[in-house]
Structure formats: C-alpha cells, structure tokens
Write a structure and sequence with these properties.
Layout (H helix, E strand, L loop, with lengths): L31 E5 L17 E6 L2 E11 L6 E2 L1 H6 L16 E5 L10 H16 L3
Parallel strand pairs: 1-3
Antiparallel strand pairs: 1-4, 2-3, 2-5
C-alpha cells in the first residue's frame, strides 16, 4: 500500500465518488483527477462535469485517460491520483511527488465512465473522444 496515512500526511481514504461496490476510489490503482468544488469561478456541475466524467491528461509526450474521481478545494486545480501521476511518468510519492506545472487536464463534459473504476472503458472512450476532437467533430 503506497497511499495511506503512513506515507501521505494528507491522506484521507474518502473520495467524493465511489466504486460500484460503494468503496472509496483506490488512488494507487485508479487514474483519477480531482476537480475544484463549486465556486463563483467555476461550477463543474454547470458544465456537466461529474463523478466518472472522462479526462485526458497530457504531460510531455504522454497522454493518459482518467476519470473525475474526487472534489477538492475551490482554489486548487491540478490534483490527480497516485495512479494517474505514475501513468504520466510523474514522481508519485504522496508526501513529495508531483510537478508544479506542465500537465494539461482536459475534461470531456457530458461524459461518464461506468463503472467508474473501469480503466479499460476510460481508455477506450478517451481514444474515441480524442480522435473526434482532433478530427474537429
């Protein structure tokens, strides 16, 4: 277990959205992003972004797909799970990993991966939506 209270001083097992069996999302296993909570600046719900919405993460020459899996502070953007960071080649140590910049997050509005923990479904949907985006459709 790499994601727990011993390895991460800010660890909390709860996530805003849960797996199909009701358990919190597993940050070590599931690539997911954290979106800011509703604010005057942005309300994800108004843009049809919710738990399970599909996200593309771009870092250097890597593109990986994830789901919206948690809601965080209204003034912070750019959080992702341990699994998402590792998939991008970003140092994923919960206590001191991450990068300060150079990651682009694209959340596809009005999308939903179900069950939320199905990484293969997220990859398949991501590739399809990315092709449509690149083709201008």
């Amino acid at each position: 277990d790499r994601c727990n209270g011993r390895t991460d001083p800010h660890f909390t097992p709860a996530t805003a959205y849960t797996e199909s069996d009701g358990r919190p999302l597993d940050a070590e296993r599931l690539p997911y992003v954290v979106v800011p909570g509703p604010s005057d600046t942005w309300d994800p719900g108004e843009d049809d972004v919710r738990g399970g919405s599909l996200a593309a993460l771009v870092h250097g020459d890597r593109v990986r797909y994830a789901v919206v899996g948690d809601v965080g502070p209204t003034d912070l953007i750019g959080e992702a799970s341990y699994a998402a960071a590792r998939s991008l080649g970003i140092p994923a140590d919960p206590a001191g990993g991450g990068v300060a910049s150079d990651v682009t997050y694209i959340v596809f509005k009005d999308t939903e991966v179900r069950p939320i923990e199905d990484t293969a479904a997220a990859e398949k949907a991501g590739e399809r939506l990315a092709r449509r985006f690149v083709d201008g459709g």
